[in-house]
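Homework-ish question, so no full write-ups if that breaks the rules, but can someone show me the predicted structure for this set?
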Amino acid sequence: MKHFDIVVVGAGPSGGHCARRLTKLGKKVLLAEQHQTFAQNDFSSAATPLETLERYDLPLDVVGSFWQKIAIVTTHVYQNWECSRPRGVVLNFAKLREFLAQEVQRQGGEVWMGHRYICSFEESGKTVVEFKPYKSNKTVKVSTQVLVDATGPSRAVMCSSKQQHPAYFTGIATEYLIEVSSSDYQKYADQLIFFLGHKWMPKGYSWIFPMEPNRLKIGSGQFSHPDKKTERTGSLPSYIELIIKDYLQGIPYKIIDVHGGILKYCSGLQDTYYRNNIIAIGDAVSTVNMLGGEGIRHGMECAEIAGRSIEAYLSGKQGDFSSYQREMRQTYKKTWDWSERMGISKYLEYSDELIDRGVTYLNQLSSEEILQVLFEYNFNPLYRRLFPYLRYKLSAKMYNLIQQIQSRFTATKPLKGVD
Ligand SMILES: Cc1cc2nc3c(=O)[nH]c(=O)nc-3n(C[C@H](O)[C@H](O)[C@H](O)COP(=O)(O)OP(=O)(O)OC[C@H]3O[C@@H](n4cnc5c(N)ncnc54)[C@H](O)[C@@H]3O)c2cc1C
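A: Not a homework solution, just the prediction itself:
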């Protein structure tokens, strides 16, 4: 049986980055993924701010396109913002994960594609991990000092299918990758367009992202929460087709791929972060932000934090992963709680009219401020702008009230005079 320092299950952005980071430190790492190729589960729209490239040392090869404009379209309102330079990228999700896996191999680690995690157990003081290779009847076993659950929403290692999962705030999405003419592509080439409101996607949102020359990603995603009743709506593809018909005005297109995915967020970040020598990272501990469904860079940041903790554990400097859990909660808890509350109101509670009004109000924000709200989850610009606006609305209401009282008063005066 082969022995590793670390076995990482799941080659998404968090698992790939964690394995890459630890092989770089000279650790003996296995990265195992259930799919045979990265093209097979190419599910993510993969928009992220520009800083992600530098922070996680990603090459331009993994970039599909750059964006510098943002538009929000609701049932009755359209708002857009333009920055003077590119502020983000749409990553090629398959290339991103392939790059991370190649880095693991280049630095001496092993990558096993087409290997599904089955179970793990203790045997003679070692953790044994069992995988089922694609199309094989036999399982393969390896042993490890640390086992990393990077299996995203399935949390396959930490919460096996037999165990009870907590109730999740869930997002489910479908996306079409379509090919369009160069002239049609140019109209949408450098912008992220988000669609809110009942026309475009009740209880969720839809989007158009530029994937790469002549290719657009058009998706629709819907949220559900265990405490909120959700009425039936049309199917996700029906909203994507509505966008193509109404918003893109029926331009000619060819479907290249249809894919989708699921997000499962544990309210209040109540996931299990570690158990003995098993540690969970990325979406397996709800690093995705449920306000916008953005999770790639947060999964990679989590992998950084976990990587430091695994290194300290292996060198005997710490006996468990409690410092990892502490650091994760310090980094995310407050902002993620806020984002969850805002996500629930925006997607599951607001009426169509309120969404229209909210987005109308956003026109007071500059492009820098809208980026702060959408990508830094910094809501201060909203409140800064909201208070003068509310003050103005309140004083306008008070003025009208005083006018009404005065006019009543002057209207009744002559009568008093007659008396
Ligand atoms: C439709 C959609 C659009 C999105 N758009 C964006 C976006 O625009 N920007 C953004 O930042 N984020 C986006 N996200 C979220 C982002 O993709 C995720 O947050 C991110 O991929 C999480 O990374 P991860 O590595 O933790 O998990 P994942 O990417 O889910 O990776 C988990 C891996 O584990 C593997 N696995 C699972 N079970 C097993 C098993 N038993 N054995 C072996 N392998 C296993 C899976 O095959 C998978 O490859 C989107 C998500 C969806 C669903």
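Now go work out the reasoning yourself. Hint: The pocket of flavin-adenine dinucleotide is lined by residues 9-15, 32-35, 41, 43-48, 116-117, 150-152, 154, 156, 173, 175, 219, 260-261, 263, 282-283, 288, 293-296, 299 (CB under 6 Å).
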